[in-house]
Design goal:
heterodimer; A: N-terminal domain of TfIIb; Rossmann fold; Dimethylsulfoxide Reductase, domain 2; 7-stranded mixed sheet; 6-stranded mixed beta barrel; B: 187 residues; alpha+beta; two-stranded antiparallel ribbon; 5 helices; 18% helix
Chain lengths: 793, 187
């Protein structure tokens, strides 16, 4: 090990070769002229500093952190050890949060579009001018649509203040809500939901055997899972065995005891074969199954009848039958302290919903439900709801989804969930098959241009929309298509709605404002307060004009009284700090603790202990919530649902089954494209972060070394990757870690917004080439179904 | 006087680079892929897909080893490189003439040139930031998600690092050179 630890040698072999090049300083949005050159890092000082306990927002995990502030500049973000979810860690992205705050490309002022949509030409306006513009357009559209509130669509990305924006949506009265779920964890959350009653957490800390399939916790961070699995797997004593199943050799595979290179999209066959072995060899927990299963007989009979043997699965998955026998036996021998890890961003293939159902049932066969070392439901502290208004608008139409007369269910998917199906919605909008016209949209902290397959179609949708209002911190690709841009401040400049975090060690945590918002940016709650002040009355006038219910109510009572129910300003009357205080007021000292420490749970003062510089104890063993429901599922029947007959009416298999169309095959000279997450980038939101760019400048195309050699492709060569719908280019990284007929690159690069100095046209954009395939149950984007071709440029 | 060292439970490392970013933000390290104080070494995996050697993929976090017998200190003509009171190998930027002898002498390749000051820089165990403020951790140690790093006083028999080194097998890099590094890799 003498060579690989050398810094120079490491650099030569590293994919982080490139150094940040010179930047153009012509950016309209940039403050460089005023403020001088970007200072990318700040050394902390020994002089007096102020510290603020808050929560991270560089990804979805919400780790607790302590911000160090010197002369009103944030100089360092450190982990806050008090939070059981993040366990005194802050990852690379969390540390780089300072760069998101001081990114010179940040949105600074409200703006109104002056050029063509997508062109990125805006004029700076005052907040009032921006709201006036929104008011006029909204009033016009709602008047023409006769107060059909659903003629506006609302969409948001994941985050703590998403709730604030959703409060606005509820008051506005539209039924068109789209969020990240259908391009994220919809299928896994729902499949576990219908099978076990909830999307559970995994007690990796106590598991003895872990199968992690299609999940990459060493790179796609989830707290505390990432920390727990590594420590558990590599522990000196009482360690767990980790089986990593992934078509690609990831950093998670590097930590595993066994890595199985499965063919993409065939995990369902693998799980069905594990189930077959478990049933035929009677390895399952008979008592647990007898007491807690619905439809076990039918499921068992089906598995045996279909003959899902390991030998059958070997041909489909590429995993040796011998391995499948061994894993089923080992898993069940360790059960209930054995975990088939549920995963997250998981809609890889069209069979994903059934795959997750099969995984949940296989897990339950070992009895590892709601128990130590298995899948756990955890406890959660209840918070009080604050005031919201949800007025009844008589003319608001139901969600704009296409009903199909041929069979029961919607046009493109069987079930439309709360977050909707983004792809299906967009495509229906473009095809004009929606039941009424949707003409405007409000988009909060969301980047559909970059995050949804088939970018060209998303651009068309945004061009066609008559009013696009974007609230964001950065000039993203989507912001380029906005008519009005409202600059939100970053997470370090605002207090967000307090949040309760359930689990084995539950806690409540709060994001506290560290410094005042820079430029003219505002927290979304203040944006909503000012916007609703501007539009609430004018919109009520429209309702009065068209809503007969409202008219007759006014006739029988008074306008003032009726308006009370429609007063959009109401939920935003109080400050976020006041709302938070009320929300946690059931816990005597919580509000104060959350302000000063960022984290609260009852008895924290008594329970929390520092064991060493590295280790902390949050709850004593006896107070941990390993089991909250006596080991029973939390479905309405309190049983594991193997066979859900009502599904057949919607055209969904009532039990997880293999179908021929799930078979993996690739035409000659083509590759199956896979995308994924990364420990240093969060999808599209961190692509412009100077610190993170310094770690890996751009994304790279993983291509099998031998294939690359045949095609004369060397490291760093630019490769054009094309599919039926588009093409993108990026640099090659020939490696043994990927199959000859697969390609991989991480998601979030290749942005087209020229206002993102570092991210602009940097690397490849996966969604420019991923086709809009949907899994049929929830209409979730099936991200790993696209075949591509390559060409050396 | 302490004698600071670091033990690395390197098998827990997942190469997430939290340590590298924490170091840069704490110590104001200039951005640029060549300019960094700490890093994680790795090499391309052995074997052919899908028969890859999992063991060959280990990640090695590394940085200045703060050697007790530091070759960089021996070759420095201006005494810019020196041992401070707590045993850390430090650089006095005012004395550094950028002759680069130390960069060549360091067997661990731990030094680089800071383009702003045109002097040599490297890991300082956060001496003039965190330790100077009376904190007891380095930025990299504190932030690590999988808690690879144990930092502390090697002369204090009750310190966590002393305890760990007493109870667990470990090795140092290039020990044959006699540099006596204070970075210990736990087996």
């Amino acid at each position: 090990m003498s060579t690989e630890v050398s810094r120079r040698k490491f650099l030569q072999g590293s994919i982080a070769l490139s150094v940040i090049g010179g930047m153009a300083s012509t950016n309209l949005f940039s403050n460089e002229e005023k403020k001088g050159k970007i200072k990318t890092t700040t050394k902390t000082n020994t002089t007096q500093a102020r510290t603020v306990s808050t929560l991270c927002e560089m990804c979805v995990n919400k780790c607790a952190l302590i911000a160090r502030v010197e002369n009103n500049i944030i100089t360092k973000l450190d982990p806050n050890p008090l939070f059981p979810k993040s366990r005194n860690m802050l990852c690379a992205r969390g540390n780089a949060g300072i760069q998101a705050l001081y990114d010179p490309d940040r949105l600074k002022y409200p703006m109104i579009r002056v050029g063509e949509k997508g062109e990125g030409k805006f004029k700076r306006v005052s907040w009032d001018e921006a709201f006036e513009y929104i008011k006029e357009k909204t009033v016009k559209i709602l008047d023409e649509e006769q107060d059909n509130r659903s003629s506006f669509m609302f969409c948001a990305g994941e985050g703590m203040a998403e709730h604030t924006f959703k409060t606005f949506y509820d008051g506005f009265g539209s039924s068109n809500w789209l969020n990240h779920s259908s391009i994220c964890l919809q299928t896994v959350a729902s499949a576990y939901g219908v099978t076990l009653g909830t999307y559970p957490q995994a007690d990796l800390e106590n598991a003895q055997y872990i199968i992690m399939a299609g999940a990459n916790r060493a790179e796609a961070f989830v707290t505390p899972d990432t920390m727990d699995f590594v420590k558990k797997v590599k522990a000196k004593k009482n360690s767990a065995k980790l089986i990593c199943v992934d078509p690609r050799f990831t950093n998670t595979a590097a930590k595993s005891d066994k890595w199985l290179a499965i063919k993409p999209g065939t995990d369902l066959a693998f799980v069905l074969a594990l189930t077959y072995v478990t049933l035929t060899e009677e390895l399952y927990n008979k008592t647990y199954v007898a007491e807690n299963f619905n439809g076990f007989e039918e499921y068992s009979a089906m598995i045996l009848k279909e003959n899902y043997t390991p030998e059958w699965a070997e041909k489909i998955t590429g995993i040796k039958a011998k391995e499948i026998y061994e894993i089923a036996r080992e898993f069940m021998a360790n059960a209930p302290k054995a975990i088939y890890y549920p995963g997250r961003r998981s809609t890889f293939s069209k069979n994903d919903f059934q795959l997750r159902r099969a995984m949940a049932i296989f897990q339950a066969l070992g009895g590892g439900i709601d128990c130590k070392g298995g899948l756990v439901f955890g406890k959660q502290f209840k918070l009080k709801d604050h005031e919201e208004i949800i007025p009844m608008y008589d003319n608001a139409k139901a969600r704009a989804v296409v009903m199909n007369n041929q069979h029961i269910g919607y046009d493109s998917c069987a079930i439309v969930s709360g977050g909707g199906s983004w792809i299906s919605w967009r495509n229906n909008f473009l095809e004009e098959t929606q039941p009424y016209k949707v003409r405007g949209m409000f988009c909060y902290k969301h980047n559909p241009m970059m995050n949804m397959p088939n970018t060209a179609k998303t651009a068309q949708m945004l061009k066609k929309m008559e009013l696009v209002v974007c609230i964001d911190t950065m000039p993203s690709d989507t912001v380029m298509y906005a008519d009005v841009v409202l600059p939100e401040c970053t997470y370090l400049e605002r207090t967000d709605p307090v949040k309760t975090f359930g689990g084995v060690e539950p806690a409540i945590a709060q994001r506290n404002k560290v410094i005042d918002p820079m430029y003219e940016s505002k927290p979304v709650i203040e944006i909503m307060r000012a916007l609703t002040n501007k539009i609430s009355k004018p919109l009520f006038e429209i309702t009065k004009k068209y809503d007969e219910e409202v008219q007759s109510e006014i006739a029988s009572s008074s306008e003032k009284e009726v308006y009370e129910e429609f007063d959009l300003t109401k939920p935003f009357m109080f400050s976020q700090e006041q709302i938070n205080e009320y929300t946690v007021s059931d816990y005597p000292d919580a509000a104060e603790k959350l302000k000063t420490q960022g984290v609260y749970y009852p008895k924290m003062d008594e329970y929390f202990k520092q064991l060493s510089e590295n280790e902390f104890e949050y709850y004593p063993e006896a107070a941990k919530s390993y089991s909250v429901n006596g080991g029973k599922p939390v479905t309405p029947s309190k049983k594991v649902e193997c066979n859900i007959e009502s599904f057949t009416k919607k055209g969904i298999d009532s039990m997880p089954m293999w179908r021929d169309e799930y078979m993996y095959s690739i035409p000659k000279n083509q590759f199956r494209l896979m995308t994924g997450r990364h420990a240093q980038y969060t999808q599209t939101s961190t692509a412009n972060n100077a610190m993170l760019k310094d770690l890996m400048y751009q994304n790279y195309l993983w291509i099998n070394k031998h294939v690359a050699a045949e095609k004369n492709i060397a490291f760093g060569d630019i490769i054009e990757v094309s599919s039926k719908i588009g093409k993108t280019s990026l640099r090659a990284y020939p490696t043994e870690k990927i199959a000859p007929d697969n390609l991989f690159f991480i998601h979030g690069f290749g942005q087209e917004s020229s206002e993102l100095n570092w991210a602009y046209k940097n690397g490849g954009n996966d969604n420019a080439i991923i086709e809009d395939f949907m899994e049929p149950v929830y209409g979730a984007a099936a991200m790993h179904e696209t075949n591509v071709e390559i060409r050396k440029v | 006087m302490a004698r600071y060292g670091m033990a690395l439970d390197y098998k827990n490392c997942i190469n997430c680079k939290a340590c590298e970013t924490a170091c840069k933000e704490e110590n104001g390290v200039l951005l640029g892929a060549d300019n960094h104080r700490i890093w994680v070494g790795m090499k391309e995996i052995e074997g052919e897909y899908p028969n890859l050697s999992i063991a060959s993929n280990t990640f090695y976090p590394s940085q200045c080893q703060h050697c007790d017998e530091a070759p960089c200190q021996e070759v420095c003509p201006t005494n810019a490189t020196y041992y401070d009171k707590d045993g850390q190998v430090r650089i006095d930027a005012d004395k550094c003439i950028l002759c680069s002898y130390c960069i060549n002498a360091c067997p661990y390749d731990a030094r680089y040139v800071d383009d702003r000051t045109n002097t040599v820089d490297k890991c300082t165990f956060c001496t003039d930031t965190r330790l100077a403020r009376g904190e007891t951790t380095t930025a990299c140690q504190n932030t690590c998600p999988t808690k690879v790093r144990i930092f502390g006083d090697l002369d204090d028999p009750n310190s966590e690092i002393s305890q760990v080194l007493q109870n667990r097998e470990h090795f140092t890099l290039k020990s044959n050179l006699g540099t006596k590094p204070k970075l210990f890799y736990l087996i």
